[in-house]
Amino acid sequence: MENDRKIGIVGGMGPAATWLFYRYVTEMTQASCDQDHVNMVILSDASMPDRTTAILNGKYEPVMKKMREDVQTLQNCGCTAIAVTCNTAHFFMEKVALESELSFIHMPEETAKKAVAQAGNGKIAILATRGTIQTGLYQKRLESLGGHPFVPSEEIEELIMSQIYDRIKKGLPGEPDTWKKIDHYLHEQNCNCAIMGCTELSVVKEEQKMGSYYIDPMRVLAARVIEYSGRKIKSDYSE
Asked: Residue 79 catalytic?
């Protein structure tokens, strides 16, 4: 039944982001009982090799192998579509998905649509890992939609990477003072909005209650997952 599709989530990259994603889906679904919620299998594969490291050193196969195994596991569980709670992982998963009969809900593609609509003719900052930036995962999609991607300076990229790897992935909160510096820089560069292009940054946005200027791809993905499953999004949902 189209209103009862089971979604497979490849998560664990990182665990805090995967937990937050499930919370988003649950909170955003219009439901009055358990049966109104999304049928979902979350595979939290924390043993997945680091995606940015694999991109930077060119050793793709260990990541690809793990993703193929995870997709097969989710297919065996009866899932009809897959999604991934890691932006950088899409560089690999979009290739793996071509080998599978499952539908692939592509987080950067869906986020790019939202960002271009929000930014109008203005610049869209991409806050992400070096791996995501290097692959052009967001830049290409934004440009194809007529958007204007903006990649922060090396100094700001260092701060972003530190927040991802030295804070959130270690179970520590983001640093408000660092984010004030990043925010000041983005407005100084006349960016109309910014994509939190790493799921650890989605955690930062939630922690620090950042406004709609910062677009959270995981919330965008949560909405698409709810829609695909045949469930309904709450009427008061807003990014």
From this structure: no
Q: How many residues does the chain have?
A: 239
How many angstroms separate the CA atoms of 169 and 91, rounded? 20
Architecture of the structural domain at 2-106+220-229:
3-Layer(aba) Sandwich (3.40)
Query: Helix axis angle, 90-98 relative to 61-76, nearest 10°?
Result: 60
State the DSSP code for 136: T
Query: Mean pLDDT of residues grouped by 10 in the chain (239 residues)?
Result: 82 92 97 95 96 94 97 97 95 95 96 96 96 95 97 97 94 95 98 96 95 96 96 81
Which pLDDT value is given to residue 214? 98
Residue 238 is predicted with a pLDDT of 57
Single-letter code of the amino acid located at 18: T
What phi and psi, each to the nearest 5 degrees, are found at residue 71? -65, -40
Residue 86 annotated in active site: yes
Helix, strand and coil content of the chain, in percent to the nearest 5, comes to: 55, 15, 30
Specify the amino acid at residue 215. Answer: I
**In this structure, which topology does domain 108-217 adopt according to CATH?**
Rossmann fold (3.40.50)
Q: Which of 79, 86, 191, 193 is catalytic?
A: 86
| Secondary structure letter of residue 38 according to DSSP | P
pLDDT on residue 1: 45
Active-site residue identified among 79, 191, 193, 198: 198
For residue 54, the model assigns a pLDDT of: 95
Q: Any idea where the domains of the chain sit in the sequence?
A: 2-106+220-229, 108-217
Same fold, 2-106+220-229 and 108-217: yes
